[in-house]
Amino acid sequence: MSVRENLEAIKKQIEVACTKNNRNSDEVNIIAVTKYVSIKTAEEALESGVEHLGESRDFGLLEKYEALGEKPVWHFIGTLQSRKVKDIIGKVDYIHSLDRLSLAKEIQKRAEGKVRCFVQVNISEESSKHGLSKEDALTFIKQLERFSSIEVVGLMTMAPHTDDKESIRTVFRELKELQEEVKRLHLPYAPCNELSMGMSNDFEIAVEEGATFVRIGTALVGKEL
Length: 225
Ligand SMILES: *Cc1c(COP(=O)(O)O)cnc(C)c1O
Hints:
CATH class: Alpha Beta
CATH superfamily: Alanine racemase
Helix content: 40-55%
Bound molecules: pyridoxal-5'-phosphate
Order of helices and strands: HEHEHEHEHEHEHEHEH
Number of helices: 9
Largest sheet: 8 strands, parallel
Strand content: 15-25%
Number of domains: 1
Structural class: alpha/beta
Distance between the termini: 17 Å
CATH topology: TIM Barrel
């Protein structure tokens, strides 16, 4: 299937998930994750109507940014080493993996304007995954007040690798609950209106549970590299 056909199918699935939960599908942004595909396929995604591209490695981001420039909205979705911040800042529109003060400090040091960040939470507490525990996330977000360049636009999580749909759903639901807690704090630098959750295998559940950004690689652009 072409990227365009995949996109149409995914949009329909998102529509269905939204209808089930009385959501407007306009609230759901599709990020095409291009880490496994060529520049050419990333271009095909843009031509098919995708507006957001996501990369999880600094070199992948830089390579594609060089070719595609500011056409897409760029998302950095992977683990971010502090020493790489200076290379990607100013190029990416959103960072999805803010999970420690040392990284916040580096973003603050390098940023020229506001940087839109998602705080990454490891709801499932799988040790292989990055992100803060649910318990630590609120404290962390409160500590971000002193970093004037950081705007906490939302929370991000990755569901566990499992076929158990209910445990995936629980993870997404808990992220949504945590988002509500952050919103209740009314922190001016942390509106936290967005939820970045859902990948190829679980984006429908994520949308049912309130995702506003889904990060879809394989099911949308395939896997070439
Ligand atoms: C690779 C990746 C995705 C997309 O994964 P697919 O299963 O191919 O859709 C989403 N989010 C993050 C953080 C990733 O690293």
